[in-house]
């Protein structure tokens, strides 16, 4: 790592509000799969992203149940999905200027990788995983509550996501909750394509595709909602 890059990461640490005892964790959180050495399969941010996703989920669930004690589980689930979705995490990543720090291949950078929502969202979660691994849950929780707090004001206007609507639809018909199965993962590690099937007992399954598991699950849920007449398909321009 160059001295300039080290200085940059110090600036990022200051923006995050956490001084890393192990700066290598932050560097790893910013290493995209396209820059991973072939001889080191775990030298990218995917494992930290996995960890950060769980830390984010716990902290957001805690924030919502504490702040909105009178709301139902269904409403909280819809708001939860809005706060942890790719678009929100990408916006947080942009507010941290993560695009300036992500380590990626020249090809990925040349194709606009530093501005891609999926890459920014994944890096955001990986950074949260690094903060948790370095400083513990309370430190990560503080960062999450601070930076996701501004989004609480828009929750009542947030459009319900497909997975939440499908769950409510199934519950309203006294059906088991939807199950999501990963059918396929194709493409290179740095640009995968997922296919997911959603199953509801007594209803024909549907499949969806996306750049990550969340997108594929949302696409599958959306397809089932459209087929069952719950949602209308988007109008063609």
From TrEMBL:
It is found in: Cytoplasm. HAMAP family: RNase_III (MF_00104). The gene is rnc. It catalyses: Endonucleolytic cleavage to 5'-phosphomonoester. The lineage of its organism: Bacteria, Pseudomonadati, Pseudomonadota, Alphaproteobacteria, Hyphomicrobiales. This is Ribonuclease 3. It holds the Pfam family Ribonucleas_3_3. Transmembrane segments: none annotated. Digests double-stranded RNA. Involved in the processing of primary rRNA transcript to yield the immediate precursors to the large and small rRNAs (23S and 16S). Processes some mRNAs, and tRNAs when they are encoded in the rRNA operon. Processes pre-crRNA and tracrRNA of type II CRISPR loci if present in the organism. SMART domains: DSRM, RIBOc. GO terms for biological process: mRNA processing; regulation of gene expression; rRNA processing; tRNA processing. Keywords: Cytoplasm, Endonuclease, Hydrolase, Magnesium, Metal-binding, mRNA processing, Nuclease, RNA-binding, rRNA processing, rRNA-binding, tRNA processing. InterPro entries: dsRBD_dom (IPR014720), RNase_III (IPR011907), RNase_III_dom (IPR000999), RNase_III_sf (IPR036389). Its EC number is 3.1.26.3. The active site is at residues 53, 125. Residues 9-136 form the RNase III domain. Belongs to the ribonuclease III family.
